[in-house]
Each structure stands twice: as C-alpha cells, then as structure tokens.
C-alpha cells in the first residue's frame, strides 16, 4: 500500500446487505470505490455490535483494494494479531479505547499493518499530538460512533488543526460519519483525503442493480474535488 494524497472514497459496509457482504464489496469496488471500510463494534465501546476477525478474514478474498478496518472496541491489543491474520491493511483504534494508544499503534505496525487512530467528536486534536510519528492515518469521527446514517457533525477546525500538526508526514486524514455530496467538499477543503461513506454510497442500489453505487461514488468524488 503506497501513500498518496488523492481523494479516496471508502464505502462503509455498515450500510450494505449484511447477508451478502462478499457480493456487496465486489459491487462497490467495480463501481469505483477506492478502499473498503469495515466497522467492527463490540457492544461495549459503542452501543452496537457487528462482527469480528472471522468475518473480516472471510471478506479478504472478495476485496482486492485496501481493507480499512475501523475498530470500535475496547480493549484493542488482544485482537491486533487476529486482524493481521484476517488480512487488514489499515487497522484503526480509537484514542479513547484505552490508556495506552502509543503501545497499541506500535503493536499494529509491529504486526505488519498500517496504523490508524480515531478521535470521537468530543476529543481534541491534541490527544494524538504525541503519536503522529506512529500513525499512518488519523480518523476524524463526524458522528458519535456506533451507527450508520447519522447526521454530520462539523469538525472542520479539528481537521485543519490535524493537517497542520501532521505537516509533511505521510499520514492520511480520514473522515467518518455523515459524509455525502453536501459535506464532502467541506472536509476535503479542511484537509481530508479519505472519505468514508456508508448510507450515501449504498443508497438506492443493490447487488442486482449496482449502478446507483457508481453514481453515488462519482457524485461524492465530484463534490469532494469541486
Ligand atoms: O464508523 C461508523 C459509525 O460508527 C461508520 O463508518 C459511519 O457511520 C459510516 O456510515 P454513514 O456514512 O452512514 O454515516
Ligand atoms: Co467507521
């Protein structure tokens, strides 16, 4: 996985058909998705439950691009090797998920993955100031994590502050939550390059009729680049 600053659209499978993930990820990839975003929730760190390493491992053979795994779990460290074994390319842990984010990020890289750190809307940019050298991605949550389809919370100031803090390091800024054609431009202007979008990508389409996925992705990209 080589670093580049171009806009990347990462559909979140949280908005896909849970009984048909393999075909859904193939469909969005064929329709122009750059990365695939996979939301892991434990019913403890967030008030919702999705799936764990076996599901991610099963998805690996259907995903030919970057598999971007967003862990909304606490604790994290005991599961890092399982996600490496599952084939995650990027593994993101929340800074709020435990007291030792420095150790967690080191362990993620040590297991051979790119390391991401996510910040909830209420967490300031300064919370990651001392771990930026251990990060490949900072994920700015623009909803409170746990559910898809929520309204976007404007974090432009935080995104711009992180962009300044990151400087010339090769660190992506990813935005997660409520990204659509109305909000994509704002976050890119502030400094983001990876846009996660669940409902705004999967809306109106299906595996049988995937063309709307393509139209949605193209519209979000155009809004981001415009
Ligand atoms: O991490 C997440 C929620 O915690 C999801 O990635 C996010 O909500 C994407 O869904 P949508 O685009 O529908 O908001
Ligand atoms: Co997510």
From TrEMBL:
E.C. no:
5.1.3.1
Q: Which residues bind substrate?
A: 12, 70, 146-149, 176-178, 198-199
Q: Which domain of life is it from?
A: Bacteria
Name the coenzymes or cofactors required: Zn(2+); Co(2+); Fe(2+); a divalent metal cation
Q: Name one GO biological process term.
A: pentose catabolic process
Q: Which residues form the signal peptide?
A: none
Pathway the protein takes part in: Carbohydrate degradation
The residues listed in the UniProt record as binding a divalent metal cation, with positions renumbered to this chain, are: 37, 39, 70, 176
GO CC aspect terms: cytoplasm
The entry's active site is: 39, 176
Family annotation (PANTHER family): RIBULOSE-5-PHOSPHATE-3-EPIMERASE (PTHR11749)
Q: Which family does it belong to?
A: Belongs to the ribulose-phosphate 3-epimerase family.
Its function, per the record, reads: Catalyzes the reversible epimerization of D-ribulose 5-phosphate to D-xylulose 5-phosphate.
Q: What protein name is recorded for this chain?
A: Ribulose-phosphate 3-epimerase
């Amino acid at each position: 996985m080589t670093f580049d600053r171009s806009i990347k659209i990462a559909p979140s499978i949280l908005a896909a058909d849970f009984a048909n993930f393999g075909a859904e990820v193939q469909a969005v990839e064929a329709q122009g998705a750059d990365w695939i975003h996979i939301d892991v929730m434990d019913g403890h760190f967030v008030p919702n439950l999705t799936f764990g390493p076996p599901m991610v491992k099963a998805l690996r053979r259907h995903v030919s691009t970057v598999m971007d795994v967003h862990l909304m779990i606490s604790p994290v460290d005991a599961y890092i090797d399982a996600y490496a074994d599952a084939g995650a390319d990027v593994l993101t842990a929340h800074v709020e998920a435990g007291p030792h984010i420095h150790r967690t990020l080191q362990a993620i890289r040590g297991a051979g993955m790119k390391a991401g750190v996510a910040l909830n809307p209420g967490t300031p940019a300064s919370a990651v100031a001392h771990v930026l050298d251990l990060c490949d991605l900072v994920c700015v949550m623009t909803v409170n994590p746990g559910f898809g389809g929520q309204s976007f919370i404007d974090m432009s100031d935080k995104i711009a502050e992180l962009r300044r803090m990151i400087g010339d390091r090769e660190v992506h800024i990813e935005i997660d939550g409520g990204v659509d054609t109305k909000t994509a431009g704002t976050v890119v202007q502030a400094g983001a390059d990876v846009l996660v979008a669940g409902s705004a990508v999967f809306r109106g389409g299906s595996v049988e009729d995937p063309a709307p996925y393509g139209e949605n992705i193209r519209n979000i990209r155009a809004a981001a680049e415009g």
